[in-house]
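Q: what sequence does this backbone want?
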């Protein structure tokens, strides 16, 4: 039994809270978590935490914003109650995917345009344009051919020139038309003066003609201004993206957290946002153990990373088990002139007549792993396993997985998985409660937790 320690469980994952307390052989602390009628979070700790080592367990799944606010209020309440040290245990760190700048100044796609392929229950798992195959012809790529592309560009340039001519004054229009037709030739000053004065009607002064030209120019300027003011950006795009990663780190620090324990951060650089110690545990030992004891002839299988960002994570497991490695590369190229770039998935490696094991840290909508599974089956893989540390599986992810080429998906219980298990027969859950309980015990006694980092 661990003494002088208090474990407070948030409302995000009650089952994980119970597992950790059972492993530490301590009862969970008495805490009241509720909401007022207006929706504000209420936290009341009903036992003394003065001089105690407090650990608050709160995951980042489900209602992320409510759970984050609940965690901040609980941390502040413990510091106000004179707790000796407050450690936030976050199996899934909230907002961990917003630590870097994911988009350039051209804008960030915040929402996809609605089309026939986004309808519920319709999943193609296709990449556009398709990945070239040795036995197949070239993909169509751009609609039409290169000549069609040049025609569209030239047409756009002609339209711009015509719009520019329409905004000119009548006098300038006549000069431009004469210049284009080749009828106007520059002569001396007398000829130009006589042509200008002879062209106007009798009784019209030069000043009135100048006023008319000025009015036409003002009208053209106002029309340009109206066109500029009526400009609307494309739907789903925004010119500036807020980075919430640094803000969440500052909120936890200002609330009074002295230590952070989490698992498999999406970006390891996130630890640099904190001024307090951050222990980033690994879920790889669990995944490695599952591969060794549950996949037959695992040394003949292939570890596959679904994107370049997870290549280092996947190669660590492949090297420790002596298994081959493959990578799925996303190539981005435009499919239409006015369309944003789509990702084409290309396999680098050989998975023919082998079992493919996809390794990733987080699956939210499961779009990446389902498209990767279809590509692997297309390249000759016999079975496809997906091993994910954080199975958030939000939206229609469960339906997408059920309709995909994935034979089995393995996730940890860093977020609640009870509802997902009932809806997905392919889902299998690994327990991480013992890992966090051991980390809490070692931190409390001042022992090293590097053993939990060693997955070789």
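A:
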């Amino acid at each position: 039994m661990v003494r002088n320690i208090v474990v407070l469980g948030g409302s995000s994952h009650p089952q994980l809270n119970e597992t950790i307390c059972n492993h530490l052989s301590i009862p969970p602390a008495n805490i009241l978590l509720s909401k007022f009628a207006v929706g504000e979070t209420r936290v009341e700790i009903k036992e003394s935490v003065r001089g105690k080592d407090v650990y608050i367990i709160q995951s980042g799944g489900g209602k992320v914003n409510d759970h984050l606010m609940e965690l901040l209020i609980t941390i502040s309440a413990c510091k106000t109650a004179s707790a000796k040290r407050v450690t936030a245990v976050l199996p899934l760190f909230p907002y961990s995917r917003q630590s870097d700048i994911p988009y350039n100044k051209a804008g960030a796609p915040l929402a996809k345009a609605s089309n026939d392929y986004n309808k519920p229950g319709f999943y193609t798992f296709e990449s556009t344009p398709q990945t070239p195959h040795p036995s197949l012809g070239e993909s169509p790529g751009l609609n039409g051919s290169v000549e069609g592309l040049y025609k569209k560009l030239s047409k756009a340039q002609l339209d711009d020139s015509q719009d520019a001519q329409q905004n000119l004054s009548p006098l300038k229009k006549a000069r431009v038309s004469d210049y284009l037709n080749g009828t106007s030739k520059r002569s001396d000053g007398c000829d130009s003066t006589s042509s200008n004065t002879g062209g106007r009607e009798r009784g019209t002064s030069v000043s009135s003609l100048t006023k008319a030209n000025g009015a036409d120019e003002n009208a053209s300027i106002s029309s340009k201004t109206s066109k500029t003011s009526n400009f609307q950006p494309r739907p789903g795009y925004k010119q500036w993206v807020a980075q919430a990663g640094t803000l969440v780190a500052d909120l936890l620090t200002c609330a009074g957290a002295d230590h952070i324990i989490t698992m498999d951060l999406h970006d390891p650089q996130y630890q640099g946002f904190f001024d307090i110690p951050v222990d980033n545990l690994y879920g790889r030992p669990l995944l490695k153990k599952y591969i060794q004891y549950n996949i037959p002839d695992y040394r003949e299988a292939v570890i596959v990373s679904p994107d370049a960002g997870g290549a280092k994570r996947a190669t660590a497991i492949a090297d420790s088990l002596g298994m081959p490695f493959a990578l799925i590369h996303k190539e981005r190229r435009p499919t239409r002139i006015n369309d944003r770039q789509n990702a084409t998935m290309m396999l680098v490696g050989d998975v023919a007549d082998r079992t493919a094991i996809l390794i990733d840290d987080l699956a939210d909508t499961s779009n990446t792993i389902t498209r990767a599974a279809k590509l692997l089956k297309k390249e000759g893989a016999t079975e496809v396993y997906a091993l994910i540390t954080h199975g958030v599986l939000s939206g229609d992810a469960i339906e997408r997985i059920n309709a995909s080429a994935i034979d089995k998906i393995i996730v940890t219980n860093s977020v609640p998985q009870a509802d997902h298990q009932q809806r997905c027969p392919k889902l299998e859950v690994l327990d991480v409660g013992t890992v966090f309980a051991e980390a809490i015990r070692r931190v409390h006694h001042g022992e090293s937790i590097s053993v939990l980092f060693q997955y070789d």
